[in-house]
Amino acid sequence: MNVLETAPNMIGRPMERSQTSRLRPLCLMGLVPWLLFACGESGGSGVGTGTGGVEAGGGAVGSSGGAPGVGGDGAPAGGSAPASGGSAVGGASASGGEGNAAGGTSDGSGGGATGGAESSGGAENVGGAPVDGSGGGGGAAEPCPADATFCSGFDSAELPDGAVFRLNGDPATPWTAYFEVDSTVKRSGASALRVKSVGEVSAAYKMLSVPSGGANFWVRLYIRSDVPLGHEEHNVFGQASGSDDPNDATSVEFAEDVGISFNSQDVVRWPEGYGRLQAGGTMAYTLPADTWHCVEIHFDGTARAQELYVGGEKLIDAPNYPAEPKAFTRFKFGYNALHFTERKVWYDDVAVGPTRPGCLD
């Protein structure tokens, strides 16, 4: 029998059993799209977040049921990995939801998937700086780390424990002739250490020397100047050194020389794109005046690898530098005005040790 031809004749009278059995497959086939649609809807609005893992390349992985919901274009800061929206339980794939990665949202029409705890693809730190795993630096920073070989906030008028003052001149000269504990300008605590200016004292070399604990060590210091840091002329703020001797040549300097730089026996390393440019000319990287700057330095005289961070951002990466290994035992800081650039310099919250201390802000 042709069902389409006889269907109108069946209106108003009972169907025969044979007719009913023939129509049942067609009815079921007609219901399939509606069932799929309903299942898909319930799956998409089911559990958008999924119950699987919480961290991956931008989203959570769902557990039971349907396929994972794709979270759209929620790119983490500095990266392009999409956030995964999570899976719908018992149905077809949900189309994402708000896959919140660090720095972007992926809008979808499915469940409210939240894209995981935090997207780690591209691991970006403060200001877009890459997180560097060497030496630690994770967690909250401490003013004085437990493993520090030297630490001071300069809240006492006494020479800090472990510090040595060596003048390039009369050894009887007290350290207070070139430094003062200043309670009027400070980053934290009661006071900071101020290096007296060239106009106040005639000597160029004004440094304190503290133990480094070896050739591979970290420094964190807060530095401030009444003029920008990063002068065209060569002057020194700190250095890894082999001894307390002011004239010790076993050194890598944290200096200024056409901007902020490393300097070792006049071999200079600058931030990328700064200093003396290969194309000619110069571009100095400077730090603003009258501002506290967190500077972290990783010295490694054995591996010949030096790193400089400002505000948590790696500014200079100097591998294979200097040319020969250096047996560092001390860190010196203050101001060595090689070109007698007039300025006042302050230090606060200085820490030296085998692991990265981290900035306190």
Q: N- to C-terminal separation? A: 85 Å
Overall helicity:
under 10%
Shape: globular
What count of domains describes the coordinates?
2
| Strand percent estimate | 25-35%
The CATH architecture of the largest domain: Sandwich
Under CATH at level 1, the class of the largest domain stands as Mainly Beta
Judged by helices, strands and strand pairing, the structural class is mainly beta
Kindly provide the radius of gyration, computed on alpha-carbon positions and rounded to a whole number of angstroms: 33 Å
Q: Describe the main β-sheet briefly.
A: 8 strands, antiparallel
Low-confidence stretches: 1-138
Question: Could you give a quick summary of the protein structure above?
Answer:
By secondary structure, this protein is mostly beta strands. Helix content is 9%, strand content 27%.
Describe the structure.
The protein is 9% helix and 27% strand. It has 361 residues and is mostly beta strands. The strands form four sheets. Strands 3, 5, 6, 8, 15, 16, 17 and 19 form an eight-stranded antiparallel sheet that branches. It has a seven-stranded antiparallel sheet with strand order 4-7-18-9-10-11-12, with no helix packed on it. A two-stranded antiparallel ribbon has the order 1-2. Strand 10 and strand 11 form a beta hairpin. The termini are far apart.
